[in-house]
Amino acid sequence: MTIMWNAVRERIRRKELYIVVAIAVLLFLLFGSGDGSLTINGEPVTGYESTFKILLVLVNAAGCVLSMVISLKTIPKEYETRTSHLIWIRGISQSRYHGELVLANVAASIFADGILYLFLIGYTLILGTGDYFIRMIPAYLIFCINAVIVSMLVSVVSIRCPAWVTGLVGTMCVLAGIFHSVLNLYRNMVGGISGTALKWLLLFMPDLAGLQTQASNLIFGKEISVHEILKGILIIYILSIGILVIRRREA
Question: How much is the pLDDT for 236?
C-alpha cells in the first residue's frame, strides 16, 4: 500500500484542493450565515432546513468537481514521468498499480469531501439541533458515495484516454449527475428523439442528485430510498471491475 499512501500525500498537497476548499468556504460564508439574502423566485429562503438543503447541494457540487480534478491526471502523470517503469521492475502488476492509484484518488476525494462536510456540521451546531448533528454522521456515508463514484469513474477513463477526453467525460457525468432529476423531468416533457437520446444518456450517468437527496432525507428523519443507495454501490462495483480489466499499452 506504499504506492497508495505516497499518492494520497501528493494529492493532498496539490493546489487544486485548497482552491476548491476556499471556494466552498466562501459559499458557506455567503449562504451559511443567518444574515444571508438568498432568494428563489423572489421569495427569501429562511429557516435551518431550507438553507441547509441548499448548502448541501452546493457542497455536493463542489465535492464532485473536486473529486474530478483530483483524479484527472493521477494515472497519466505516472506514465508521463516514467514512474510506472520503476514499478514494473519491482514486479508489481499493472492492475495492482492502477488499483492503488485509484484508491489514492478515492481517499483524497473522501478527505476533501469531509472538509466540505465539516462546514455543514458547523452550520448545524450553530443553527440546528442535536438530533440533526447525530444523523449527519451516518448520512455522510451516503453523501461521500458521490465523491467515490466521480473519482473512480474519472480514474478508470484516464487509464486509456487523454486528459482532455477524461475531463470532458468527467464534466458531463458531474453535470448530468447533479442535474439528473431536472434532466429526467425535461426528458418526460419533450419526448421524441430528444427525449429518447436524453433517456439513454441518463441511463449511463450516475444519479448524484439522488444520493444527495437520500443523505438529506436521513438527516431530517424522512424516508430514504435504499434502491438509490444500492445503485450507487453497484456503480462503484462495476468501476472496480474496470480498474482490474482495463490495461494501458505503455506497460
Answer: 94
Q: Is 137 helix (H, G, I), strand (E, B) or coil?
A: helix
Tell me what the pLDDT averaged over the chain comes to.
79
Give the separation between CA 164 and CA 178, rounded to whole angstroms: 21
Q: What is the pLDDT of residues 86-139, one digit of tens each?
A: 566 666 677 787 888 888 889 888 888 888 888 788 777 777 666 788 888 889
Ramachandran category for residue 192: left, alpha or beta (phi over 0 → left; psi -120 to 50 → alpha)? left
Are 154 and 170 a contacting pair, CB within 8 Å?
yes
Amino acid at 60: N
Identify the bridge partners of residue 43 per DSSP, sorted by sequence position.
40
DSSP 43: E
Backbone angles phi, psi at 222, to 5 degrees: -100, 170
Helix/strand/coil percent split, the chain, to 5: 80, 0, 20
The predicted model scores a pTM of 0.84
CA-to-CA distance for 187 and 42, rounded, in angstroms?
27
